[in-house]
Amino acid sequence: MTGAADEGGPVRPAAALALATVSFVALLIFGLGMTSLVLGADVIETPGLGQVPGILGVALATAAFAGSLWLTLRRNPASYGGAAWTAAAVYLAYLGGVAFGILFSAGELAVAASVAGRIAVSWFGAVVAGAAAIAAWGGIALVRTRAQRPRWPWEDDFDE
To answer: For the whole model, what pTM was predicted?
Structure first.
């Protein structure tokens, strides 16, 4: 049985975007958690801010990831340089999301600026950018690949 499913070729951009976005969120949560554990510090150490800044930061970072990676994946061929632009967009969106979340929950501009600045220059900011770069590179690689699906030896059409 031969057909379109047996032909090799790239993964469709929409499927690659979905896989890369899920991978980004998983890497981000894992990376921030492990960094917090290793450093013995919270991502947002200011007491009384609640969960809103972190949730908004991750939500905006995920939207920025999906949007900027989609612009890269639509190009033919997709450029691996798009991973760097995606990482930069995600980094800025995460910082902005955390700052807006603090403004929304606490209403204090100075606290928002200090928390966002601390994240920007700490390992937490590097983890956000790194997770975005790794997941974006993987999504771009999926679209650029020309590999075929794996096959068992007995699936070959010819007789020996």
So the answer is: 0.84
Q: Are 101 and 119 in contact (CB under 8 A)?
A: no
DSSP string covering 18-48 = HHHHHHHHHHHHHHHHHHHHHHT--SS-STT
- Name, in order, each residue with C-beta under 8 angstroms of 84's C-beta and a sequence gap of 6 or more: 133
Alpha carbons 28 and 32: distance in angstroms, whole number: 6
117: which residues sit within 8 A by CB, 6+ positions away? none
Q: Is residue 75 part of a domain?
A: yes
Range of the domain at 63: 20-146
Asked whether residue 60 is assigned to any structural domain, the reply reads yes
pLDDT tens profile 87-103: 999 999 999 999 999 99
* Residue 46: HSE in the Cβ half-sphere, 13 Å Cα cutoff: 23
- Which of 129, 127, 98, 126 shows the shortest CA–CA distance to 114? 98
| CA 78 – CA 140 distance, rounded (Å) | 6
Q: pLDDT digits over 139-160, tens only?
A: 999 998 877 767 777 777 665 5
Q: Residue 86 in contact with residue 132, Cβ under 8 Å?
A: yes
Domain count, the chain: 1
Q: Is residue 160 part of a domain?
A: no
